[in-house]
Amino acid sequence: MSNNKCDDCESKNIGYINNDCLCLECGEKINIKKASEVTRQEADKIANILKFKSNDNLRKLAQQTLKEKKFNIPYTNETTSKKGIYLVKDEGIYLMNAFSLAEGKTPSTEGFTIYAEGYDPSTNENVWEDSYLVSGDDFGEFVEMPSSMLVSVANGSDITLMLSAETIELKVVA
Length: 174
Description:
Helix content is 21%, strand content 29%. By secondary structure, the chain is an alpha+beta fold.
C-alpha cells in the first residue's frame, strides 16, 4: 500500500476487518506498518470496520434497549428518548448499554458489554495496538439505533460499524 491506497485496484477505500487491512473494493489484503508505527494522520484516513457477532449478551442488550425509554448522552447529564447504545474504546472496543442500570449493577455484571471481534483484551494480547488504529484516544459515542434494527439484533442479527474520523455507519446483518 502506498499513500493509503490499494496497489492492485488503486482504490482508497480501505479498512480493517478482524485486524487485517483490506481493500474494500477488491478484497486484497494490504500490508501496512505495525500500529505503533502508524501516525495519527494515517490512522484517521483508514476506515475501521468493527464486527459484533450475535450472542446471548448482544441479543439481551438489544431486547433491553427496546424496553427502555430514556438514554444517557455520554460526557453530559443529558438524556434522549432516541433509542441507542454506546460504542466505547478504552480497554478494548465494545458496545454497552446507554440506559441507566439499578444501583449496584454494572454493564459487565448484567452482560451488557459486548466486544468487537478482535478487540477483547481477554483474548487479544495486542488489543492496545489494534485499538490504537481505530483511535489514539479513548471515547464513548452514543449510536442511535432505530427500533427495527434493535428487533433484528434481538432476533440474532450481527452488528457491523464502519468508523472514520468523522462518521459512524451502522449496519445490521442477518
